[in-house]
Amino acid sequence: MKKIISTLLAVILIFQGYASFAQLNNAGFEGGIHKNEMDYRDEKKYKEVIFLTGEPILLEGTVELKIRDEKLEYEYELSNKDETVTLEREVELERIIDDESHETQISEVNNILDYDEEIVVNLGGQSNTYTLVDYQMHNSTIDDKQPVVTYYLGNWLGSKVYSINDNEGEVKVDISGNIYGYDHYWGATETQKIHKDISYSQQIDDDSVIEWYGYADIDVSFNRTKRMEYFKNLPYQTSFAGGYTLTEQNETIMKYKYNLPYVEDNEVKEGIYNIGEGTERFETLPTQKKLYIPKLQDIKGHWAENDIERLAALQVVDGTNRYFGPDLYMKRVDFAKWIVHAMDLLEEDTHSRRSFIKDEVYPDIFSDVTKDNPNYQYIKAIKDNGIMNGVGDNKFLPEGNLTRAQAITIVIRALGLERLAPNPSFDTRFKDDDRIPLWAKKAVYVADQVGIANGTPEGYIYPNEYMTKAEASAFINRFITYLQRDMKEDYREKIINFDVK
């Protein structure tokens, strides 16, 4: 649905021509999930659970989304398996976007413009038609773009009123929802927590009215993840032992719990409740891309062999040469290039769906890096994204050796996580804490907390020692793994308390 606030992080729809930001999920604000086949079709398979009748009813069908600069339009066609329950819904939302008040943030507000919804239920020998007669909904979300990750947060309140059989009764559903999400090159996750309060009143005959209250909690999460998998080459007479495959897969999960009354023969049974839960999901077939097969001759048996091969397969490091030099010191310019390649920072908004487009310019960036420098584009990208700012008097020192403290600071700055550190003064847990430069203290603390840099088994971080190319390879691989796995766990499993394999 809306760029930031889609009801769940669907997985990557690119909408061409959408200048400031794009949306990640397109299922709407109804608490359902859709299957994003990554084929760019507007119409997607869709599931939703409704609770209007006092029983949870799983509906399946399609949702179609149309995005306009100032408007979002949704069209749903759903039914249960035996088609005794059908739902037709059209919703139109206005979009109010503020992308000018802050350089790295965008806010969006969505309000209802128009709606049309009818649910027909033929169950237990009875037929009821629920017609939506009033729908109020206000949503607001905020994007915060950091150098390699865009984080976002949203919330909304809604109220839907249905007429039963042309004013025989009424069902009111009050809805509150929160959205937590991020998006980067290696993946994206959006999780929504939705609460629905349902109040039901229907005139059964001249003397009796059935009234009840119930509620439901719905947790929905959309995820896109890129993974690397190694495949061994089985034949003996071959030029290479095996190779990596890069896969990308989208999945959506809906977990719901409900506490509803127990209704029998149009009578609410006091003290008896209909309590339960359920789970639904969609998965797409992973896309696959075979990666470059490096043939470096000086890494076999090295402790960082796998890390180096992974980065070489991704062409983050140059695997075309015969020698890598794993124990040589890491140069600042090479680390900049590796970060740019690993995060695809030379590409303009083709991977991070929640990123901002910048006009391409070619200014002088550092006194020791001119436009003629063969690595100019990488150094410019790393500076433009606020990841490496140089040292001293506007110098980058491209051939300078990289220290551990510098590497850690660069990665934490790229993630935008400095705020996780306490205010000075504080000590890290490392035995050589007193040797950590003041400018790197927060980054080292955060890197330890999130598991990107844990130091040695003896408890040292050695902040001022130069990092070797092998160590840098392992460090960037850990950075990528954090983006692929650890962030998803924080934004999905820890929020919805659901063990997803």
From TrEMBL:
Protein's name in the database: S-layer protein
Cross-referenced Pfam families: SLH
Record lineage: Bacteria, Bacillati, Bacillota, Tissierellia, Tissierellales
The keyword Transcription regulation belongs to this UniProt entry's keyword annotation: no
UniProt domain SLH: residue ranges: 291-353, 362-425, 427-490
Record keywords: Signal
Highest taxon above the source species: Bacteria
Signal peptide: 1-22
Residue spans crossing the bilayer: none
